[in-house]
Design brief:
CATH class of one domain: Alpha Beta
Radius of gyration: 30 Å
CATH topology of one domain: Rossmann fold
Largest sheet: 7 strands, mixed
Structural class: alpha/beta
Number of helices: 29
Strand order of the largest sheet: 6-5-13-7-12-9-8
Number of strands: 30
Length: about 725
């Protein structure tokens, strides 16, 4: 055994040791480490072949440091790798850290079960389908898939997206637990952070450092270093909760500005070197669908790999046995309207008698579930508050959160809010108690802060137990008030998803209420929500819209109303019926059509639509439409190709390795959308442009540089 001296010194210094050169020799090195009252010295033997003189020198070093009050260790290592492992395991207390993560997972499972009525229940993670990088549907479970990515060499950003309440946090905990359970030394340890909106406006960098300092007893620089060495995987759950501080209002719609979000992404990007892995979970956000984010990914893709997973809605067949599934099919309730983990858990665990009763009232399943939980609070907390008053108090808390733009608060803040907003309810409830048991206002407010529909999150804050329950009370805000105006779309989606299983008449009323808050919705979200509540897309408010990454299934589109001068990008349609006679100047980019049809009740020349880079697997859907279009209406413009190349290669830019986000060109006001698309097609057919690694990008054909310069008059 002979260790490389410089490597050993570098490694110990990285972990905060001080190298004592005068107390070291050619075959041994001495390091000291001071932490508070504790002074430690470590003598590392570089070789076992020690002379008598070496042994005498080491004994003198030990005696000197013993006299100075140091705790002394003398160690022999087989390799530098062994030293690194021992230092990492010691400083990061990996065994205890894994136990802590396993314990947190068990607490999470217990909390999930507590949100269900009493009975025979056992937590188990249920796999769901997902899409990888917008085009690849995988057979492996998403947990296995992410774990396999974590084990690979090289830096990687893993982004998992899903609507509110579709299992992002459950999946995060499952991944973290799997990593903590792994005994293989090659598996990194997880660093899990769960974000929520609180009332403090702080930057992502500050939050990240704060969480590191709170979690580990070592300096944040060392944590970052070991992340980049691949020994720690960062898991950031609920990243979208940080976006509200970067919100701006544009054309009546409140959205996060990419320019404000970019510093957060750059902080994450700076982590991603070596073997670093960062896993982010987020609700769907316009930020991740924007051209700016696509261009950011393009700039960064050579530095690290970026993988996007989109978690699909739960499949009922994965949650319910065949008997219960068939029972639901016999009701007027649409199966897809029950695709929520909380509802499915309830239907999975209730006894047969309760389940059969639910099938007689299928549109009241949500209310019956909530009622059962509220009634449990009577005995669980000896709470003498009826269900209606419990609902009122919970709705008031949800209203305050949504209007003031936060989702978590401290226990003291929650108690204060309950006393502020629910004073009359508290007095009314106190009157229900017999004289000897009547609680004070403070005691009653504290009892309500421990309600089963609240959960203690990270950092000792309190939030609603899950997105479904939060959405249930947010929907109450909308239905019970004409002036509810949430701070942004984040509070609208869970309300709509919680309302999905209601009867159509109530959903129509709810959609009319959504009209009053449409200022907080972008058009893509509005279209998704119209599909959920109306079972079609036919609103007259989609003109001049960029609609991105929407999945529409088994609905009709614009049967009676028109949509004008809009662009659908990266959208997926399945079993849809298009009334293309009502589409005016509409463009489809990178879209997929499965088993779709279109109405042929209009004259062919009214088909004012354009497809680019779209596909209809196993169908001639697109070819049929193309054959019916009246192309003679399009005026040729020879300058459009020159304009496109000028946009791609502005004067003074290098033509080397240029990739560009081509959908941005379609939004140009200088030329009609059709002329831009035809220009792109011609440039690609003529060999000037080539497909890039991502279908949203094209690149310059390097062999055509000379021709491009001549076309642009730069030679």
């Amino acid at each position: 055994m002979n260790l490389e001296k410089d490597e050993v010194i570098k490694l110990f210094v990285e972990y905060g040791f001080e190298f004592k050169e005068k107390a070291s020799g050619s075959k041994y090195l001495t390091f000291t480490f001071k932490s508070g009252f504790f002074h430690n010295a470590e003598i590392v033997l570089l070789s076992q072949d020690l002379s008598d003189s070496d042994k005498e020198d080491i004994e003198k070093v030990e005696a000197n440091y013993d006299e100075l009050g140091f705790s002394i260790k003398k160690n022999t290592y087989g390799s530098v790798k062994e030293i690194r492992k021992k230092l990492f395991d010691g400083f990061f207390e990996t065994k205890n850290w894994k136990k802590k993560n396993i314990s947190n997972y068990k607490d999470f499972c217990s909390t999930a079960l507590d949100s269900l009525p009493d009975g025979n229940k056992k937590y188990s993670y249920i796999n769901t389908s997902y899409i990888k990088n917008d085009c690849e549907t995988c057979e492996n479970s998403i947990v296995d898939e992410v774990i396999s990515q974590v084990k690979k060499q090289g830096p990687c950003l893993i982004l998992m997206e899903a609507p509110a309440g579709f299992g992002k946090t459950c999946t995060s905990f499952e991944i973290v637990n799997r990593m903590a359970q792994e005994e293989d030394d090659s598996m990194p340890i997880p660093f899990f952070t769960e974000f929520s909106r609180d009332r403090q406006a702080v930057t992502f960098n500050h939050i990240f450092v704060r969480e590191v300092d709170r979690s580990f007893r070592v300096k944040s620089d060392l944590v970052i270093q070991e992340v980049q060495n691949g020994r720690i995987v960062v898991v950031l759950d609920g990243f979208d909760e940080l976006l509200h501080d970067a919100s701006v209002k544009k054309e009546g719609v409140i959205n996060a500005s990419f320019e404000s979000v970019e510093p957060m992404l750059e902080t994450i990007g700076d982590l991603l070197i070596g073997n670093a892995k960062v896993i982010i979970t987020s609700r769907r956000s316009a930020i991740f669908d924007s051209s700016s984010f696509a261009e950011w990914m393009q700039r960064r893709h050579e530095n690290f790999e970026i993988i996007r997973y989109k978690i699909n809605a739960p499949r009922l067949s994965d949650w319910l046995n065949e008997s219960r599934l068939n029972s639901i099919k016999r009701t007027p309730l649409k199966l897809e309207n029950l695709s929520n983990p909380v509802l499915l858990s309830y239907l999975r665990f209730v006894d047969d008698e309760t389940f059969n009763e639910l099938m007689t009232k299928p549109f009241e399943i949500i209310d019956i579930y909530v009622k059962s939980m509220l009634e449990r609070e009577w005995s669980r907390q000896d709470l003498w508050m009826n269900n209606d008053d419990q609902n009122l108090f919970l709705t008031e808390i949800a209203r305050d959160m949504s209007v003031k733009n936060y989702t978590s608060l401290t226990k003291d803040e929650l108690v204060s809010n309950i006393k502020t907003y629910c004073g009359p309810l508290l007095e009314k409830t106190r009157a229900n108690y017999p004289p000897g048991k009547k609680p004070t206002i403070d005691k009653l407010a504290t009892t309500l802060s421990n309600h089963c529909f609240f959960d203690r999150g990270s950092g000792n804050t309190i939030q609603f137990v899950n997105e479904f329950i939060f959405g249930y009370y947010l929907s109450n805000c909308l239905m019970q008030s004409s002036d509810w105006l949430p701070a942004d779309e984040r509070f609208v989606e869970p309300a709509i998803l919680s309302f999905q299983s209601r009867e159509q008449e109530k959903k129509n009323i709810f959609w009319s209420k959504v009209e009053t808050i449409k200022g907080v919705l972008d058009k893509a979200d509005r279209m998704r929500f119209e599909q959920i509540l109306k079972g079609c897309v036919n609103d007259n408010d989609y003109d001049e819209s960029d609609i991105k990454n929407v999945f529409l299934d088994s609905i009709s589109l614009f049967e009676t109303n028109e949509i004008k001068n809009s662009v659908f990008s990266n959208c997926k349609f399945r079993n849809c019926n298009f009334y293309f006679g009502h589409f005016c100047g509409v463009v489809f980019l990178n879209c997929v059509f499965w088993n779709c049809i279109f109405s042929q009740s209009y004259e062919a020349e009214r088909f004012d639509i354009e497809f680019y880079n779209c596909e209809a697997p196993n169908s001639d859907f697109i070819e049929k439409i193309e054959s019916l279009k009246n192309e003679s209406q399009l005026e040729e413009n020879p300058d459009v190709k020159k304009y496109i190349l000028n946009e791609i290669c502005p004067l003074g830019s290098s033509l080397s390795n240029i990739h560009f986000y081509w959908p941005k060109l379609v939004s140009s006001e200088k030329f009609p959308k059709k002329q831009i698309l035809n220009g792109l097609k011609e440039l690609r057919n003529e060999g000037f442009l080539e497909e890039a690694h991502d279908h949203d990008f094209m690149k310059i054909n390097t062999s055509k540089y000379g021709d491009i310069k001549r076309m642009l008059g730069r030679i």
